[in-house]
């Protein structure tokens, strides 16, 4: 009887282990968007289902893995759909000391003499908890990553909080080696994964029992991120003790598109006080001098389509972006980040904030400002206006009848209005309802497909472009008429062409086309995961999809030729993707000097800050970029950023890049 009891107890224990299940919510800006179900079978076997809906996109993955005694993967299999709904299949195995892996873009093997952790491209968030636990077992809490790179983990402290089951204590781990900056993973005291977050808390994966404590989790992460960023700013920001004099520069003026060689620029404090020929300016006492050696000096660049997260500020400055506009972010902590940019305690540009508003529903955008009534709509506008935002961005699930109310209220409060064209509305109706600006070039094409295509909350806003964009050419009367309509209404267009080039790329190549010139310089794991996934091409539509991106380029050129104001923005990797955006404008046929004007003076004028920004002239803020090349002759030279000045503070892009794990450029020469 005793033996039977023992066997029953053992069976019950094994069954309990086999049946251990954890269900996590996937939260986008606090809204439930999906789930992650983690099933453990014994000590080393895990099965995970991970799916979420982000406006019709989002991963849907089933993964299984086994671990060895070091906690590293010895088997991994994942199948399903990636963010853009393309099919994925990924495998890894470790047998006899040889690791083998395969996915859509990678097929490799390596003989191992020490433990190493394979980091899948298509993986549920739980894999980061697995990696942290393996690192905690590893010597020095470091492990080689496969296919390349190295991961390291540090304990960032504990957090005591209430859960649905009572008080809990979580440990915050800072995980380095997967991106430009450390990411956050939270574990329970027994080592189980408690929470994983991305993009400054924009995305969070955690059980419902812990969801009420998410603000505490994000706040702790923000403190750690701010401390890390403050150290970076102290190390990499150079404030001249006296005046700053840049000599022998070829200064570009976007007002008349001239580039004048042999020019000096004198900066005192945060402003330019004089611009003149070299021989007409003497160096003041104690001035620091940068000899430009004839290099190209231009006003700081703008990126008008941002969603700031951890490393974006430093990446922008390294890329010469000194002004920007954020078009949707976390209202809990983003304002504090902008203040840190302004104070210099975090490296980043001057940011104009746009508030994000959408309507509720299955395709709602990632925001807490989801409105259904006129009262809610006006209240949302007022909140943004009261908190220093200068623009409203609306989104696809907004009720069409609410948009004119939002536009009127925003204009009453002195805010601009832009956005995705709401579903069931044409771009023409959007402008007639009060929009000052349209985000993304696809909505220009969707205007011509209306009313055949009205449901644009889902992937149709992208797939219809792939299938039919080539059908709409600038010589068609309806296209010419709509361009004239946009010009007459002074409508601005933010095309984000580099993102669409990425979406149109080869699925077998993980590197976005616009980032190929710099891809090899980036951290190994970043190279594997830094773009949007290309759209899957339906069978029989290969020719149409191949023609789509050239059609988008032709349309942007037609908008420019028709007098419509364009502003370059990225909606992607900070700094470097803006360079790609400008290169595409030049490839589309817009003259290089005009492209540089669109990236400097034009956004300053549109955003109402041209009193202080947009040109290199006395009285303006000293936001400057020194280029080791000539983007007037070859727009690819815009990538050769040697020195960046923001408000009189000098930054060496090479030093910033090195701190972010990017191969450095040559240092700035200051005497």
Strand portion, in percent?
Answer: 25-35%
Specify the number of helices: 19
Oligomer state equals single chain
The helix content, as a percent range, equals 25-40%
Identify low-pLDDT runs.
4-17, 666-671
Largest beta-sheet details? 15 strands, mixed
Average pLDDT level: 93
> What is the topology, as strand order, of the major beta sheet?
8-7-6-5-4-3-2-1-15-14-13-12-11-10-9
The total of beta strands comes to 31
Question: Whole-number radius of gyration?
Answer: 26 Å
- Please state the structural category: alpha/beta
How far apart the termini lie comes to 89 Å
Shape, per Cα inertia axes: globular
What is the topology?
Blueprint lengths: L1 H17 L1 E9 L2 E11 L3 E8 L7 E8 L5 E9 L5 E9 L2 E5 L4 E5 L4 E3 L7 H12 L4 E5 L3 E14 L2 E11 L6 E6 L4 E6 L4 E5 H4 L2 H23 L7 E10 L4 E11 L2 E7 L10 E4 L4 E4 L1 E6 L5 H7 L2 E6 L7 H10 L6 E8 L16 H13 L4 E4 L8 H10 L3 E4 L7 H6 L4 E3 L2 H8 L10 H9 L8 H12 L3 E3 L2 H7 L20 H6 L12 H20 L3 E2 L9 H12 L4 H7 L2 H6 L17 E4 L13 E6 L2 E3 L1 H7 L12
Parallel strand pairs: 9-10, 16-19, 16-20, 21-22, 22-23, 23-24, 24-25, 26-27, 27-28
Antiparallel strand pairs: 1-2, 1-15, 2-3, 3-4, 4-5, 5-6, 6-7, 7-8, 10-11, 11-12, 12-13, 13-14, 14-15, 16-17, 17-18, 20-29, 29-30, 30-31
Helix pairs in contact: 5-19, 7-8, 10-11, 11-15
């Amino acid at each position: 009887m005793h033996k039977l009891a023992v066997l029953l107890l053992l069976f019950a224990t094994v069954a309990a282990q086999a049946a251990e299940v954890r269900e996590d919510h996937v939260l986008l800006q606090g809204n439930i968007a999906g789930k992650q179900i983690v099933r453990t079978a014994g000590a080393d076997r895990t099965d995970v289902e991970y799916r979420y809906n982000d406006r019709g996109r989002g991963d849907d993955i089933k993964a299984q893995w086994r671990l060895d005694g070091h906690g590293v993967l010895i088997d991994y299999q994942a199948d399903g759909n990636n963010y853009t709904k393309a099919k994925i299949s990924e495998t890894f195995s470790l047998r006899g000391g040889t690791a083998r892996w395969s996915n859509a873009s990678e097929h490799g093997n390596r003989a191992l003499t020490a433990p190493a952790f394979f980091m899948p491209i298509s993986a549920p968030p739980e894999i980061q908890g697995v990696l942290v636990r393996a690192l905690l077992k590893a010597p020095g809490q470091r492990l080689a990553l496969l296919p390349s790179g190295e991961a390291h983990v540090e304990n960032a402290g504990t957090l005591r909080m209430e859960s649905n089951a009572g008080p809990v204590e979580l440990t915050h781990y800072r995980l380095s080696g997967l991106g430009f900056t450390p990411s956050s993973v939270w574990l329970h005291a027994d080592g189980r994964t408690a929470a994983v977050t991305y993009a400054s808390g924009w995305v969070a994966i955690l059980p419902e029992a812990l969801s009420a404590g998410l603000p505490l989790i994000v706040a702790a992460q923000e403190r750690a991120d701010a401390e890390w960023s403050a150290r970076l700013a102290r190390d990499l920001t150079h404030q001249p003790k006296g005046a700053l004099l840049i000599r022998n520069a070829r200064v570009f003026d976007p007002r008349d598109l001239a580039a004048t060689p042999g020019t000096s620029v004198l900066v005192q404090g945060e402003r330019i006080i004089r611009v003149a020929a070299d021989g007409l300016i003497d160096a003041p006492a104690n001035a620091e001098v940068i000899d430009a050696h004839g290099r190209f000096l231009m006003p700081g660049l703008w990126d008008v389509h941002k969603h700031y997260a951890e490393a974006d500020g430093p990446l922008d400055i390294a890329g010469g972006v000194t002004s920007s506009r954020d078009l949707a972010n976390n209202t809990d902590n983003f304002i504090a980040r902008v203040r840190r940019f302004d104070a210099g305690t975090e490296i980043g540009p001057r940011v104009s904030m746009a508030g994000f508003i959408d309507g509720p529903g299955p395709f709602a955008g990632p925001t807490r400002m989801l409105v259904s009534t006129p009262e809610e709509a006006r209240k949302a506008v007022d909140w943004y206006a009261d908190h220093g935002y200068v623009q409203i961005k609306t989104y696809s699930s907004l009720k069409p009848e609410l948009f004119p109310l939002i536009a009127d209220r925003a204009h009453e409060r002195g805010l601009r209005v832009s956005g995705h064209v709401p579903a069931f509305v044409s771009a023409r109706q959007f402008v007639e309802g009060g929009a000052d600006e349209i985000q993304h070039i696809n909505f220009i094409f969707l205007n011509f497909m209306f009313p055949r295509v009205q449901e644009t909350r889902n992937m149709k806003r992208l797939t219809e472009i792939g299938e039919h964009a080539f059908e709409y050419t600038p010589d068609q009367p309806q296209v010419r008429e709509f361009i004239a309509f946009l010009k007459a209404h002074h409508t601005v267009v933010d095309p984000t062409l580099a993102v669409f080039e990425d979406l149109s790329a080869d699925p077998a190549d993980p590197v976005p086309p616009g980032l190929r010139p710099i891809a090899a310089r980036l951290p190994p794991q970043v190279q594997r995961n830094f773009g949007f996934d290309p759209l899957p091409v339906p069978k029989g539509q290969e020719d149409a999809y191949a023609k789509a991106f050239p059609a988008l380029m032709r349309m942007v050129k037609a908008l420019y030729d028709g007098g419509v104001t364009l502003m370059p923005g990225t909606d992607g990797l900070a700094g470097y993707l803006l360079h790609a955006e400008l290169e595409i404008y030049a490839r589309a046929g817009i003259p290089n000097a005009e492209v540089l004007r669109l990236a400097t003076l034009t956004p300053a004028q549109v955003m109402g800050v041209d009193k202080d920004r947009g040109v290199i002239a006395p009285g303006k803020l000293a936001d400057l970029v020194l280029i080791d090349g000539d983007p007037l002759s070859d727009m690819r030279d815009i990538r050769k950023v040697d020195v960046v000045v923001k408000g009189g503070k000098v930054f060496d892009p090479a030093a910033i890049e090195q701190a972010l794990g990017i191969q450095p450029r040559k240092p700035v020469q200051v005497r």
